[in-house]
Amino acid sequence: MLTGKQKRFLRAEANNLKAIFQVGKDGVNDNMITQINEALEKRELIKVSILQNCMEDKETVAKQLAEGTGAEIAQIIGNNIVLYKESEKNKTIQLP
Fold first, then answer.
1. In what residue span(s) does the CRM domain sit (predicted)?
2. Do the beta carbons of residue 44 and residue 69 sit within 8 Å?
3. Which comes out higher in pLDDT, residue 89 or 46?
4. In this structure, what DSSP letter does residue 15 have?
5. Which CATH fold topology does 4-84 show?
6. How far apart, in whole angstroms, are the C-alpha atoms of residue 86 and residue 94?
7. In 1-96, where do the E strands start and end?
């Protein structure tokens, strides 16, 4: 679990990130979870956008992504979810 201080740090880091994944009307699927997991291994911190035509609410999508990838939800803001997962090989982010 992330502490409040760590979440604030990650939110600040994610501020300049662009969303690299989009969740649409099909919702979350296994292929998407695999790709997001690979992106998290490379980057540690990513932003996922939820499109208007997504049938599920953003909290449900965030929970599914976090459980599927083993990541932490750093933030849900608007239609964007910020996910963090410590990389095993490419560790670049030093949490406070």
1. 1-96
2. no
3. 46
4. T
5. Translation Initiation Factor IF3 (3.30.110)
6. 9
7. 21-23, 45-50, 72-77, 80-84
Residue with tokens 């649409």: 24
Q: Tokens 């990838």 appear where?
A: 69
Per the document, the length of the chain is: 96
pLDDT, residue 96, reads 86
Q: Measure the CA angle with vertex 5, ends 66 and 20; round to 5°.
A: 40
Domain boundaries, the chain: 4-84
- pLDDT at position 94 is 84
Task: Name the pLDDT band for 43 (thresholds 50, 70, 90).
Answer: very high
| Placement of tokens 């849900």 in the chain | 76
Summarize pLDDT for 11-31 with one digit per residue, the tens: 999 999 999 999 999 999 999
